[in-house]
Structures are given as structure tokens and as C-alpha cells.
């Protein structure tokens, strides 16, 4: 990718800094393509995809392909993945259904950025099997249950995971249309899930201490426009801490980079650019000299916590910078897959090739 296409955000991040952050993610990649949280750490299928998306934006295409190939290779016959690996071995065999859904977002994003329809087609059976598993995990009110342990599905739905799955099913539908393999049953499942998120909050287990439950319905596209603005306004003062980022948990004195960047993406999706820019700038105190990012900061005593620099935090920074700079052809991956964008309307992310 030519340097001019790399994201940059004036007075916040240069193209060179974005590339350096991507290189810090690539440096953690294992020989089999897995992208762990940090060198020697564990890999989960969701954050692995987030990191692959950042590599794609930065033009590290071989590394991104290796990551997606790892996902294809490690998928189980039922369309699922174990929720945790370490050094190539399964560390937790249970299935987080949202983790399985996120591959669709990653593959749609890769196609948008690169125009590589052939690679997307190669991965389509993997995506389709994963989304079939997700849809099969839907409850009677439209919610999607989040945990499978073997053949047992735990009847509990979470706002954050369901909102993320709403987005991922939208990405899968966009892929289905692009590849000529329509899936109307997914469309129905997504509509039901969106209705549950908007109108039936009681079907979800409350986790409102966590900032993700606050902004994820906006990030995932289930809430936009006035409803999205109202949701963000409702708890802004609870989670946003001055000019240092947002809390992960409402009653704990720490801010985290990834959650702050996801709020940046949510605000960008609402057209609230000024506050989005301010938040992206606010977490640059987490940046290290090699381009990596600390996960968070305990602002009560100025200490890093957790004491780790996570690949997915750096990835969230890159995706937020891309959205604000409109640099890659996939910059609208979170902005454009909204409730009214899929299906049957304009293709939500521009695809070339």
C-alpha cells in the first residue's frame, strides 16, 4: 500500500506512527498466523480478527492473509472456534458465539480494502458456517445467546456481544450479496436481533457497569441517529474521564485505550467528528516508543493496568484513525453497516476490483 493511503490524523498520529503500530502487532504474530494479545500471550478469535483488520489497513497484507488463513484452519466442523488458544494449543474449548461471528466483519473489511474477491470467496464457506452457528444460537425474542460448551447453549444474552453480532451478520449479508449467495434467513435473524436490542432490553443480562454495553449498540449499527445520540449522551459523564480516555468499568478508576477507540468509532458513525478526534488524542499517553499501546491506565495513581501492551489496543487505534481520516476503502466498516444499510440497499462499504 502506498504510504499516502495510510491513515493519519493531524496533530494526533502520523502515517509513520500508524505503520509503526501495525508493525508492533505483526511482531507478535506467531508462525502459524495467530495474533495473540501480546508475545507469549493467548489468542482469542475475536481480537485476532481485530488485529488482522489493522494489518490490512496498514498494508501488511501477507500478515493479514496469514491471520485469516489461521482462522480458516482452526475452525471446528460445527462452524465454531475454541475461545482461547496459547502457542497453538487449545486453552479453553468453550465457544463464545460472538467470537465466531466476527470473522464476517474481518473478511468483508479485507475485501473492501484490497478488492480481493478471490480470497473472500475462498473464506466464504468458513464465514457461512460461522454465521449459521450464530443464527442457530438465537433465542425466542431475537437475542443471541453467547456461550456454547460442547453441545450445550447457555441461555444468556449480552448487549455487547449481541450488538457486535448484529454488525457481523450485516457484514456477512454484504458478503453474501457480493458473492452471489443470498442468505435470507440471516436477514431475518438480524432484523429480530436489532428489534431486541432497540425495544426489548429486558431479554439481555445487564452489564451496565461496563462502557461497552453503553456504546456497542451504536457501534454495531442497531442504534443510529437521534436514538444513538441519546444513548451516548445518557452516560457520557459516567464513562468519559477528562482528557485521558474513557473508563472500562464505571466504578473503577482506570481508562482503557481500546474502549476509547471504539467510542471514537461510534461517534464517527453518528457524525460527531469533533468529540471523536478529541477522544483519539486523549489516549495517546498509552503509546510506547515502538508504536505499541498499553491496555490502560489507573488514573488514581498513574500506574499502567493491566501491565501489558495488547495487539488489539493498537489495532483499535489504527481502525479509529482510518475511520476519521477516510484513508482506506474499508474506513466505513463501522459507519456504514447500520440498521438501514443491509439488506437491499446500497453496498455499505465501497469495494473495488
From TrEMBL:
Domain of life: Bacteria
InterPro entries: 6-hairpin_glycosidase_sf, 6hp_glycosidase-like_sf
Protein name in UniProt: Prenyltransferase
Amino acid at each position: 500500500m502506498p504510504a499516502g493511503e495510510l491513515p493519519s490524523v493531524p496533530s494526533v498520529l502520523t502515517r509513520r506512527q500508524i505503520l509503526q503500530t501495525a508493525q508492533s502487532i505483526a511482531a507478535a504474530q506467531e508462525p502459524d498466523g495467530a495474533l495473540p494479545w501480546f508475545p507469549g500471550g493467548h489468542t482469542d478469535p475475536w481480537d485476532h480478527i481485530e488485529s488482522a483488520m489493522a494489518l490490512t489497513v496498514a498494508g501488511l497484507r501477507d500478515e493479514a492473509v496469514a491471520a485469516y488463513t489461521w482462522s480458516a484452519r482452526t475452525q471446528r466442523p460445527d462452524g465454531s472456534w475454541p475461545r482461547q488458544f496459547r502457542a497453538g494449543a487449545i486453552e479453553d474449548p468453550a465457544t463464545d458465539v460472538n467470537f465466531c461471528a466476527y470473522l464476517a466483519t474481518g473478511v468483508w473489511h479485507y475485501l473492501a480494502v484490497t478488492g480481493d474477491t478471490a480470497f473472500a470467496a475462498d473464506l466464504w464457506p468458513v464465514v457461512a458456517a460461522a454465521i449459521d452457528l450464530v443464527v442457530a444460537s438465537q433465542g425466542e425474542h431475537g437475542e443471541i445467546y453467547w456461550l456454547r460448551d460442547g453441545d450445550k447453549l447457555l441461555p444468556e444474552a449480552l448487549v455487547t456481544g449481541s450488538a457486535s453480532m448484529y454488525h457481523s451478520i450485516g457484514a456477512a449479508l454484504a458478503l453474501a450479496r457480493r458473492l452471489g449467495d443470498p442468505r435470507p434467513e440471516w436477514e431475518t435473524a438480524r432484523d429480530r436481533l436489532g428489534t431486541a436490542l432497540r425495544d426489548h432490553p429486558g431479554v439481555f443480562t445487564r452489564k451496565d457497569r461496563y462502557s461497552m454495553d453503553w456504546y456497542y449498540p451504536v457501534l454495531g449499527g442497531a442504534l443510529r441517529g437521534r436514538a444513538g445520540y441519546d444513548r451516548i449522551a445518557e452516560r457520557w459523564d459516567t464513562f468519559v474521564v477528562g482528557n485521558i480516555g474513557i473508563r472500562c468499568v464505571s466504578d473503577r478508576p482506570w481508562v482503557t485505550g481500546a474502549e476509547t477507540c471504539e467510542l471514537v468509532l461510534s461517534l464517527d458513525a453518528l457524525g460527531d467528528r469533533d468529540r471523536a478526534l478529541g477522544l483519539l488524542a486523549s489516549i495517546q499517553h498509552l503509546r510506547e516508543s515502538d508504536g505499541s499501546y498499553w491496555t490502560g491506565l489507573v488514573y488514581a495513581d498513574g500506574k499502567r493496568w493491566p501491565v501489558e501492551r495488547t495487539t488489539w489496543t493498537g489495532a483499535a487505534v489504527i481502525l479509529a484513525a482510518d475511520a476519521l481520516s477516510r484513508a482506506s476503502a474499508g474506513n466505513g466498516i463501522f459507519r456504514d453497516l447500520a440498521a438501514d444499510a443491509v439488506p437491499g440497499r446500497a453496498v455499505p462499504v465501497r469495494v473495488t476490483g
